Amino acid sequence: MMDALAQSFPWLQYVVLLVVGAALVGVERAWPRRPGQPETRARWVVNVGLYALGLLLLALVVEPLQTAAIRIGSLPGWGGLGAAPLPDALKVALGVLLVDGLQYGLHRLCHAVPLLWQLHQVHHSDEAFDVSTSVRHHPLEVLALTGLNLMLCAALGVPLLSLLIYALLLAPHSLFCHSNVAIPAGVDRALRWFSVTPDMHRVHHSVRMDEGHRNFGMVFPWWDQLFRSYCAQPQDGSERMRLGLAQEQTLAAGDVPRRSGLWTSLWQPFTRPPR
Ligand SMILES: [Zn+2]
Ligand SMILES: [Zn+2]
Question: What tens digit of pLDDT does each residue of 44-57 get?
Answer without folding.
Answer: 999 999 999 998 88
